[in-house]
Write a sequence for this structure.
């Protein structure tokens, strides 16, 4: 995947979906505080898990003033009729990789410069936003250091379009660990995709360096490589419980959090006892770990979509191994649901195309959740995990005007999340199909 085609494609997509003159006129409303009323056939109450009819949202500037079946229509307000759609909060992806694209992950950091990858990350952020994801947690730049900070800052300044972002810079890993440069000629000294830390003191040092660079939270590789033989799943841990506890304490010192890549025991148990914010992937959790996660409200982030993609697009073999891992994960997911483990939604997008990750919610429903539960995990739990529970994930007064409209009822058909008719972020119209205005 080359940069120029990505940018050209997105530029053409923007022109096709947002009529320039009309969009400029509508977005100009934000600058002088002129109210906007969005009207649609339905509206999602994410907290209650209900769809109400009809639906309206009143927006002034970058905030929601009212939301419900009817709202105040102030004098001079512009009403945008979105027809037979459902208004809902912008989607949240709690596990993305803006600095990755389809293809060999280990070669991208070798063949592509950080400036080139940063430009591609900006295009990826735009693609995600255009497809309804208004907030994301970037789970590691895969060797690009804190380059994601530049992307976030450009978004926050309004220079480029993209979601609200929480960033981790590089992940943290042991020497020879999960994301180290394994399999290359040692004489070439190929750099790791992560930052090295082999002791608790080194973890804290790296965390402080990353925070200085602009990181919002810390990502740690806790397990790998994985092995599934029959129905027995094993994966070595990388950090002890004490080392993870030191990382969590350092994060709490600055009001931050720790997320771990952890697929199985004992690493998942170490992470839960240490009190991390999320256990991402979570293929296997022991009964004790599930109980701790329920009690401590530690979120599991399953990332089914990446597993499905690898099964369907194998780099080696026929994909049967990846499919076996996905089948195992789906079966374990049902046990985790029954045990009351709290979930957030993260797709691991990057190794598969940005903008397509609504598939994650479809898979969570396929493997045992109701649509209402999947949307609660995405919107309510996702907002909590990103520490924006009072700002995103619901259509409520005072929340950011991050609003999307989908064709259909997402509680009846979760695939409607892939049929985006309208995207607004911070009161700015990003994408819309032709609609009536009055």
């Amino acid at each position: 995947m080359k940069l120029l085609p990505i940018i050209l494609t997105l530029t053409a997509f923007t022109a096709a979906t947002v009529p320039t003159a009309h969009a400029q006129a509508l977005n100009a409303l934000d600058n002088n505080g002129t109210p906007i009323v969005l009207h649609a056939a339905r509206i999602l109450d994410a907290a209650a898990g209900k769809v109400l009819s009809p639906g309206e949202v009143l927006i002034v500037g970058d905030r929601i003033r009212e939301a419900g079946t009817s709202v105040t229509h102030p004098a001079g307000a512009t009403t945008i009729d979105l027809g037979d759609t459902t208004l809902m909060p912008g989607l949240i992806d709690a596990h993305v990789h803006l600095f990755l694209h389809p293809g060999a992950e280990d070669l991208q950091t070798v063949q592509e410069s950080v400036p080139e990858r940063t430009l591609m990350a900006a295009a990826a952020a735009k693609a995600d936003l255009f497809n309804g994801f208004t907030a994301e947690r970037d789970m590691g730049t895969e060797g690009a250091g804190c380059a994601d900070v530049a992307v976030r800052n450009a978004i926050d300044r309004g220079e480029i379009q993209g979601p609200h972002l929480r960033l981790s810079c590089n992940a943290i890993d042991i020497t020879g660990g999960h994301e180290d440069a394994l399999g290359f000629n040692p004489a070439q000294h190929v750099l790791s995709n992560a930052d090295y830390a082999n002791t608790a003191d080194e973890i804290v040092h790296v965390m402080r360096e990353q925070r200085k660079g602009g990181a919002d939270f810390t990502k740690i590789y806790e397990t790998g490589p994985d092995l599934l033989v029959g129905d027995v799943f094993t994966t070595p841990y990388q950090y002890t419980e004490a080392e993870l506890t030191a990382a969590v304490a350092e994060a709490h010192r600055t009001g931050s959090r720790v997320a771990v890549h952890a697929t199985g025991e004992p690493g998942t148990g170490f992470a839960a006892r240490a009190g991390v914010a999320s256990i991402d992937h979570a293929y296997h959790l022991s009964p004790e770990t599930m109980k701790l996660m329920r009690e401590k409200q530690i979120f599991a982030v399953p990332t089914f979509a990446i597993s499905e993609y690898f099964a369907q697009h194998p780099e080696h073999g026929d994909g049967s191994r990846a499919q076996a891992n996905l089948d195992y994960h789906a079966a374990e997911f049902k046990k985790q649901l029954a045990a009351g483990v709290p979930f957030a939604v993260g797709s691991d997008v990057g190794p598969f195309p940005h903008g397509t990750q609504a598939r994650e919610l479809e898979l969570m429903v396929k493997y045992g959740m109701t649509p209402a539960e999947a949307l609660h995990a995405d919107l309510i739990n996702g907002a909590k995990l990103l520490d924006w529970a009072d700002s995103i994930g619901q259509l409520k007064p005072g929340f950011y005007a991050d609003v999307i409209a989908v064709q259909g009822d997402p509680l009846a058909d979760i695939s409607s999340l892939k049929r985006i008719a309208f995207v607004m972020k911070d009161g700015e119209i990003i994408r819309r199909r032709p609609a009536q205005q009055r």
Summary: Residues 1-31 have pLDDT under 50 and may be disordered. The domain at 91-385 is CATH 3.20.20.140 (TIM Barrel). The radius of gyration is 21 Å.
